[in-house]
Amino acid sequence: MKLLAPLCLALFVISTIGEAQAAPKHKPAHAPKAGKAKPRKAAPPPRKPAIDVEGEQVNFNEWQAVREFEDDMVAKHGFDRAALEGLVGQVRYVESAVNLIKPAPPGKPKNWQAYRARFIEPIRIRAGVRFWDENAATLARAESQYGVPAEIIVGLLGIETLYGRDTGRFRVLDALTTLAFAYPETPNRADRMAFFRSELENTLLLARDTGIDPLTLTGSFAGAVGMTQFMPGNILKYGVDFDGDGRIDLSNSAADAIGSVANYLSRFGWNRKLAGPWAIPAEVSPSRAWEGLLGGGLSARYRPDELQAAGVTTQVTLPSDRLYGLVDLQNGAEPTEYWVADDNFFAITNYNRSYFYAMSVIDLGQAIKLSRGA
After folding, report:
1. Would you call the peptide bond into 277 cis, given omega within 30 degrees of 0 as the criterion?
2. Whether the predicted pLDDT of 116 surpasses 80
3. 10 Å Cβ neighbour count for 49?
4. Which of 7, 81, 285, 347 sits a CA distance of 20 to 30 A from 70?
5. Is 54 a known active-site residue?
6. pLDDT band at 120, cuts 50/70/90?
7. pLDDT above 70 as % of the chain
């Protein structure tokens, strides 16, 4: 979900701890915009949010850093000070968000096969087949427009939220305000607080632009929203109104989710000219000259002849005009798997900076595609 690439922060919590109370109404926290407003389809009545925790009622308005944030929102974006304070006064401190964002303690070694088994399984495959069947025309349109294959879009949405079943049940304002101003003590605390403060700003702008009550917006403990688990800033940057109803709704519109994922991957380097496979099994030599290739970052930068010179070989001949990166998938006590991957594989890592994640998106999409064919 590293600060997980924008979306990254795709982790979500699915245990129900309590039912939310209906969010109180409040005065819009912004001044009217000058000029004629662009016609837009009215947002549907907000659904009662189902949140995981009630949170603790605190007076964030008494926090100096929060008041400085409010000053910025008034000065930069024309928000009404009194209305903004009224909104912030309804925000809760969520201790569970703080606990969940903390780095995991050292545990078992990474295990790709165990990770894969969690996602490439019958329930997710059947749900993916059903989602693909129900949205085949939309997926085909997204593939034509953005060049991202349907199997990749379906695989990614299956990994992220099981097609909208597990989108998270935290109030986004609660989670983001808590993490923006009460982030746990970590070496990168200042950077992380700045990120969440920016996403809190984006949430308020998103709510104003779409005409929704920001207190009704729900998502993961880190503030990721909808089927796609986009952070609010990425909804503003990459969200697509793919069903043409005048709104971007990543929680209820499968079309908008499909179009937004395709747009995101396209913007982050997906190349329609690179046909699969996007990752190919490889063998590495005992000389270990290839170890330096693992530090190449999340990009494809090596020619096939450079891989071969470093002791990396594949059972198939790699196209000479395509660049690759060396990917290591650790398997706990078992031998590590090595793969060579092209730019499209690494485009997926911009969604979540993890080799395991990108490979599982590809594998789930292929499993669903094969199941549909069968």
Report:
1. yes
2. yes
3. 20
4. 7
5. no
6. very high
7. 86
Of 143, 160, 199, 201, which residue is the catalytic one? Answer: 160
**Phi and psi (nearest 5°) for 145?**
-80, -40
Tell me if the pTM is above 0.90. Answer: no
Task: State the CB neighbour count (10 A cutoff) for residue 208.
Answer: 17
Buried b / exposed e over 210-235, threshold 16 CB at 10 Å, is bebbbbbbbbbbbbbbbbbbbbbbbb
Query: Tokens 């094969």 sit at which residue?
Result: 370
Closest CA to 206 of 161, 242, 169, 176: 176
Q: How confident is the model at residue 53 (pLDDT cuts 50, 70, 90)?
A: low
